Structures are given as structure tokens and as C-alpha cells.
């Protein structure tokens, strides 16, 4: 049996009692309302009859006393009584009204007491009947009150009893299974994810059995998720160890660059001295040695500058630097079958080191070209002043960046490049951000989600015109 059916069966007596109580209350209210309306009508008719009778008695008294002007005074009183009977709101019976008005008219014409007495007799009969009806209405109302005093409490008592019985039966049917289910859930919350609740008839009614099955499915999913999280923790621990090793390699590379810089300088100097007095082939070989040694020195110098964040800043036009990098990027392999466009606005001068600045722009442009699809790919580089800053924006129509990846996009060794054709170590953006920050600017990434492209925006403070090197 389902809980809905059990609840329906339990509520049938309560519903019947409520229907009976409602019908009795409606019938009593309807009867009482009708009696109240009739009592108001009888009271109004009595008031009108007494008012007309009072006018007629006053007129009869004036005529009986006689004297000068008695007829005129009586006419005034008779006219007032006639007007009261002629009012549309008068509730007295129509035949009574017509008879009394006729006798009032006769009295005004003859100024005799006989018509007034006849009218008063008619009014007295009507008043007596109205009083009897009022007494009967009062007795009926007393009977209704008496019946309500015992009937309504009895029906209410039956209703409360039926509700209590239904509630107790429902409690007994639900409380036991729910207690067992609560104990099982407490065990699950305590970490015993292998615990399972009884299912089927042992769990109780159909809804409780379905709930127990759902809790068991949830427990199984939580157990599986726990195992998956443990595996992920182990995997991420391994990745963290590898990242620490890579960081150590980076520090080692900086140290190596520092240590080999001096020997390379000596080699370059000695090769240059030897080349001044050697023969042709020897001189040519020494020239090559010298050039390659200077190239190695440049590489180590850049490594050291990146590690130290050092460099010579100059007042540079961000538009010209972007034009140089875009012209170079158009000759790269990644620019084939993709559209690379530069949009420049007003002059935007900043204080920066030209080499690292171009490295930042080239890194952003190459990343955008690699993200843009071949054939329909489009990369737009925009340079313009923005308030008190110079802004460089690189946007593409590529695969975009997931919201979770945006939070980690500038972390060292984090990369979204999974293709073998465009592998990445995850250092380019972190280095670019460090360079921009070292120059007093900031670099931010934005994407509306997967498939919506990406936008990287770098901003530097504008340099004043009088600023120099």
C-alpha cells in the first residue's frame, strides 16, 4: 500500500465528519439568516404601525377636545399619518395601508371620530399579529441556539476523534520505517558509505521503499566519488611533485646561465683577439666562434633578466611595438590559413623594456594563432589608450577557455594545449604576466566559455611626454 492510499483511507472519516459539520453549519446559518431578516422586517412594520397609530390617537384627541383650530391641527396629524403610509419604504400589508388611508381621508373630510376608531382597530389587529409573529421568531431562534449547543460540539468531538485516530494510524505506519531509515542515514553520514538500507516491503510503504532505494543509489555514487577523489589526490600529488622538480630545474637553469656567462665572455674576447691576426680560414672559424659565443651570452642575459625582472625602460609607442611583432608573426607557420589583423588608435606611449615587451606581445599573438582554427581563424590585435592607461588586446575566435581553466591560466606549468602539433609547457603566460607586472601593468584573460574564443588584455600606465629613459 502506498502512503497516499493509506492517508486517503485514514482521512475518510475526518472528511465525512467535516462535510456533516459544514452542512449543519450552513443549514443553521441559512435558517438563522432568514429568521434575522424576518425579525428585522417585523420590527420595522411594528415601528411604522405604532407611528401611524400614535398620529391617529393624537388627531382623535384633538378632535375630541374641540375648540378653535382643532380641525386644522387634526388635519396636520392626519396628513402626517397618510404620508407615512404612502412612503415606498412602508412595509405594512397593502390592504391594511389602503384601508387605513381611506379612513384617514374620510376623517379629514368629515372631522368625525368614527373613521379614526375603525383605523385604530385595524392597526391594533395588525400590531397584535406582528407581536405574535415576533414571539414565534424568538422561540425559533431559542430552539436553534439550543440545538447548536449540543449538535455542533458533538460533531466537532467526532471530527477530532476521527482526526486523532487517522493521525495515530498514519504515525504507526510511518514512524517505524523512518526511524530505521534515519539510523542508516546517520551511519552513511558517519562515513560508512558501504552501508545500505533495506528495500522493498521491509522498508515500509511504496514511497518509503522508493526513498530507501534512492538513498542506496546516492550512497553508491558517493562511494564511487570517494574512490575517484582518492585517485585524483594521488594523481595530483604526483603532478605536484613533478611541478616542484620542474621549478627546481628552472632555478638550476638560472644558476647555470649565471655561471656560464663569464666563461662565454672570455671565449668571445679571446676569439676576437685571435681573429685579428690569423689567416683566412682560421679567421673565419674564429669569427663564427665569436658570433656564437655572443649569441650564447645574449641568451644567458635574457635568462638572467627574466629571473631578476631587470631591464632598461624607455618611452615606447605601444602601436609601433605591436606593428613590429605582428609583421614578424605574419611570417610564422602558425599564421598560415589564419587572418591576423592589427587595429591601432591614438598614440599610446608607455615606459617599458622593448625586448620583454615584444616577448609579451609575441607570446599572446602566437597563442591566439594556435588557438584559432585553420581556414576560418581570425586574430585581432587592438592598441589604443584607455583612460590613464595604454591597452593592448589580443582576441581570437578559437576554442575558448573553460571557466575553471580561467582561474589557473596564469599558473606556471598550466597549459590547455593538448595537441602534439602545438605542445606547451605552461610557462609562456606566467612569464608574460610577470613581465607586464614588473613594468607596472597588468595582464588579464577573458572568455565566454568553450567555443566562444578568448581575449587577453594587457594595460600599462601612460607615459608622460617629458618622460625619458
Secondary-structure topology with pairs:
Elements: H1 3-65, H2 70-86, H3 94-110, H4 114-189, H5 206-277, H6 280-308, E1 314-317, H7 318-329, E2 338-344, E3 349-352, H8 354-371, E4 377-386, E5 389-396, H9 403-406, H10 428-438, E6 442-446, E7 454-461
Helix pairs in contact: 1-2, 1-4, 2-3, 3-4, 4-5, 5-6, 7-8, 8-10
Name some characteristics of this structure.
five-stranded mixed β-sheet; single chain; Four Helix Bundle (Hemerythrin (Met), subunit A); 3 domains; alpha+beta; 10 helices; 469 residues; two-stranded antiparallel ribbon
CATH class of the largest domain: Mainly Alpha
- Rg, please? 54 Å
CATH T-level topology of the largest domain: Four Helix Bundle (Hemerythrin (Met), subunit A)
Helix/strand/pairing class, anyone? alpha+beta
Q: First CA to last CA: what distance?
A: 89 Å
Task: List unreliable stretches of 5+ residues.
Answer: none
Strand order of the largest sheet: 2-4-5-7-6
Helix content: 55-70%
Q: How much β-strand is present in the residues?
A: 5-15%
Basic shape:
elongated
Q: In the CATH classification, which architecture of the largest domain applies?
A: Up-down Bundle
Mean pLDDT across residues: 77
Question: What profile does the largest beta sheet have?
Answer: 5 strands, mixed
The total count of strands amounts to 7
Total helices: the number is 10
Number of domains: 3
Order of helices and strands: HHHHHHEHEEHEEHHEE
Explain what this protein looks like in three dimensions:
The chain is α+β, with helices and mostly antiparallel strands. The protein has 3 domains: 3-167, Four Helix Bundle (Hemerythrin (Met), subunit A); 199-308; 314-461, Histidine kinase-like ATPase, C-terminal domain (Heat Shock Protein 90), CATH 3.30.565.10. 68% of the residues lie in helices and 10% in strands. The protein has helices at residues 3-65, 70-86, 94-110, 114-189, 206-277, 280-308, 318-329, 354-371, 403-406, 428-438; strands at residues 314-317, 338-344, 349-352, 377-386, 389-396, 442-446, 454-461. The strands form 2 sheets. Strands 2-4-5-7-6 form a 5-stranded mixed beta sheet. Strands 1-3 form a two-stranded antiparallel ribbon. α4 (114-189) crosses α5 (206-277), α7 (318-329) packs across α8 (354-371) and α8 (354-371) packs antiparallel against α10. The two termini are 89 Å apart.
Amino acid at each position: 500500500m502506498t502512503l497516499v492510499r493509506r492517508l486517503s483511507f485514514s482521512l475518510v472519516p475526518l472528511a465525512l465528519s467535516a462535510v456533516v459539520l459544514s452542512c449543519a453549519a450552513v443549514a443553521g446559518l441559512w435558517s438563522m439568516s432568514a429568521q434575522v431578516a424576518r425579525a428585522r422586517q417585523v420590527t420595522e412594520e411594528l415601528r411604522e404601525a405604532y407611528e401611524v397609530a400614535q398620529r391617529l390617537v393624537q388627531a382623535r384627541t384633538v378632535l375630541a377636545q374641540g375648540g378653535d383650530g382643532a380641525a386644522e391641527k387634526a388635519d396636520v396629524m392626519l396628513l402626517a399619518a397618510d404620508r407615512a403610509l404612502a412612503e415606498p419604504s412602508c412595509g405594512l400589508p397593502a390592504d391594511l395601508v389602503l384601508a387605513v388611508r381611506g379612513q384617514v381621508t374620510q376623517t379629514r373630510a368629515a372631522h368625525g371620530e368614527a373613521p379614526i376608531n375603525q383605523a385604530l382597530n385595524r392597526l391594533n389587529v395588525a400590531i397584535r399579529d406582528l407581536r405574535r409573529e415576533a414571539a414565534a421568531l424568538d422561540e425559533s431562534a431559542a430552539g436553534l441556539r439550543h440545538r447548536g449547543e449540543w449538535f455542533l460540539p458533538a460533531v466537532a468531538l467526532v471530527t477530532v476523534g476521527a482526526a486523532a485516530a487517522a493521525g495515530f494510524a498514519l504515525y504507526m505506519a510511518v514512524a517505524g520505517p523512518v526511524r530505521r531509515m534515519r539510523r542508516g542515514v546517520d551511519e552513511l553520514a558517519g562515513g560508512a558509505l558501504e552501508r545500505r538500507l533495506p528495500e522493498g516491503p521491509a522498508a515500509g510503504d511504496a514511497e518509503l521503499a522508493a526513498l530507501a532505494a534512492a538513498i542506496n543509489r546516492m550512497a553508491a555514487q558517493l562511494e564511487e566519488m570517494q574512490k575517484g577523489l582518492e585517485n585524483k589526490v594521488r594523481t595530483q600529488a604526483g603532478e605536484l611533485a613533478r611541478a616542484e622538480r620542474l621549478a627546481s630545474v628552472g632555478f638550476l637553469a638560472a644558476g647555470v646561465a649565471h655561471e656560464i656567462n663569464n666563461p662565454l665572455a672570455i671565449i668571445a674576447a679571446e676569439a676576437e683577439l685571435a681573429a685579428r691576426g690569423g689567416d683566412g680560414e682560421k679567421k673565419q672559424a674564429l669569427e663564427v666562434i665569436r658570433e656564437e659565443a655572443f649569441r650564447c651570452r645574449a641568451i644567458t642575459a635574457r635568462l638572467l633578466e627574466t629571473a631578476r625582472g631587470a631591464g632598461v625602460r624607455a618611452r615606447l609607442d605601444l602601436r609601433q611595438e605591436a606593428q613590429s611583432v605582428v609583421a614578424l608573426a605574419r611570417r610564422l607557420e602558425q599564421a598560415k590559413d589564419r587572418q591576423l589583423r592589427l587595429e591601432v588608435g591614438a598614440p599610446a606611449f608607455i615606459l617599458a623594456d622593448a625586448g620583454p615587451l615584444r616577448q609579451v606581445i609575441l607570446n599572446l599573438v602566437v597563442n591566439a594563432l594556435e588557438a584559432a582554427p585553420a581556414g576560418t581563424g581570425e586574430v585581432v590585435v587592438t592598441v589604443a589608450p584607455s583612460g590613464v592607461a595604454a591597452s593592448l588586446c589580443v582576441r581570437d575566435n578559437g576554442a575558448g577557455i573553460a571557466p575553471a581553466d580561467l582561474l589557473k591560466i596564469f599558473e606556471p606549468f598550466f597549459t590547455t594545449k593538448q595537441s602534439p602539433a602545438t605542445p606547451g609547457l605552461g610557462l609562456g603566460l606566467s612569464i608574460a604576466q610577470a613581465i607586464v607586472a614588473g613594468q607596472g601593468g597588468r595582464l588579464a584573460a577573458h572568455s565566454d566559455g568553450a567555443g566562444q574564443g578568448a581575449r587577453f588584455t594587457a594595460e600599462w600606465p601612460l607615459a608622460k611626454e617629458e618622460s625619458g629613459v
